[in-house]
UniProtKB/TrEMBL annotation:
<protein>
    <submittedName>
        <fullName>OmpA family protein</fullName>
    </submittedName>
</protein>
<feature type="region of interest" description="Disordered">
    <location>
        <begin position="27"/>
        <end position="57"/>
    </location>
</feature>
<feature type="compositionally biased region" description="Low complexity">
    <location>
        <begin position="208"/>
        <end position="217"/>
    </location>
</feature>
<keyword id="KW-0472">Membrane</keyword>
<feature type="compositionally biased region" description="Low complexity">
    <location>
        <begin position="27"/>
        <end position="54"/>
    </location>
</feature>
<feature type="domain" description="OmpA-like">
    <location>
        <begin position="89"/>
        <end position="207"/>
    </location>
</feature>
<feature type="region of interest" description="Disordered">
    <location>
        <begin position="183"/>
        <end position="217"/>
    </location>
</feature>
<feature type="signal peptide">
    <location>
        <begin position="1"/>
        <end position="29"/>
    </location>
</feature>
<dbReference type="InterPro" id="IPR006664">
    <property type="entry name" value="OMP_bac"/>
</dbReference>
<keyword id="KW-0732">Signal</keyword>
<dbReference type="InterPro" id="IPR036737">
    <property type="entry name" value="OmpA-like_sf"/>
</dbReference>
<dbReference type="InterPro" id="IPR006665">
    <property type="entry name" value="OmpA-like"/>
</dbReference>
<dbReference type="Pfam" id="PF00691">
    <property type="entry name" value="OmpA"/>
</dbReference>
<keyword id="KW-0998">Cell outer membrane</keyword>
<dbReference type="InterPro" id="IPR050330">
    <property type="entry name" value="Bact_OuterMem_StrucFunc"/>
</dbReference>
């Protein structure tokens, strides 16, 4: 899905090595990396490498290090930072700032929010995804408990709109609210807090990944 035509976009492509480290804790990113709440990181299996292949030209007695998977990541964000799309080898993630979707401290959709959510639903259909994660996040203002309630309500509202737009019972949704956990920017500035107040929608690229339906919270 392309970003709205009214928004200029910039593209950044980076190479990142995916490493499985067990259960992740809160990630404090530098403002350019995606959030990594539990269950949102996927890895591809390592490639098969023949350590005895003469084409590798290893020195006598040398051995190959374990194979690693390089994941090509493409990030497209409009100039205002209101909408961000990330593509990796395995997943597509859309991040929408809360102000684009909701009034301040509210879980009621803005008038133009449905068009943005419906466009994401179109991309989910195009990728034929059958599992979709909808995660809500807030900044660190106010109590953690209030942020947890608000972020979950917002995620649930976006889920409801996506489900209606998809019109399918073959999609499994995972819906969660994380309050101020997993910020992607510095909470000491309003610009950073604005980026942290967001809803993320993630789904697999171009492959079905399940046949059951339901919503988890």
């Amino acid at each position: 899905m392309a970003l709205p035509p009214r928004s200029a976009a910039t593209t950044l492509t980076a190479l990142a090595v995916l490493v499985a480290l067990g259960l992740p804790g809160p990630a404090y990113a530098d403002g350019t990396d995606p959030s990594v709440p539990p269950g949102s990181v996927t890895t591809s299996p390592p490639p098969s490498v023949d350590a005895t292949s003469p084409g590798l030209k290893l020195a006598d007695g040398a051995t190959l290090a374990p194979a690693k998977v390089l994941d090509i990541k493409s990030v497209v964000e409009d100039l205002g930072g209101e909408e961000r799309r990330e593509d990796t080898n395995s997943d597509v993630t859309f991040a929408l700032q809360a102000e684009v979707l909701f009034p301040k401290d509210s879980s009621k959709l803005n008038p133009d929010a449905r068009a943005r959510i419906d466009a994401i639903a179109d991309e989910i259909k195009a990728q034929k995804a059958t599992t979709v994660r909808v995660f809500g996040f807030t900044d660190n203002l106010g109590s953690y408990a209030h942020g947890l309630t608000l972020s979950k309500k917002r995620a649930e509202i976006v889920h409801d709109e996506l489900a209606a737009a998809l019109g399918s019972t073959d999609v499994t949704f995972e819906v969660r609210g994380y309050s101020e956990d997993y910020p992607i920017a510095d909470n000491t500035s309003e610009q950073g807090r604005r980026k942290n107040r967001r809803v993320e929608v993630t789904f697999p690229r171009g492959a079905s990944s399940g046949t059951s339906s339901g919503t988890q919270s």
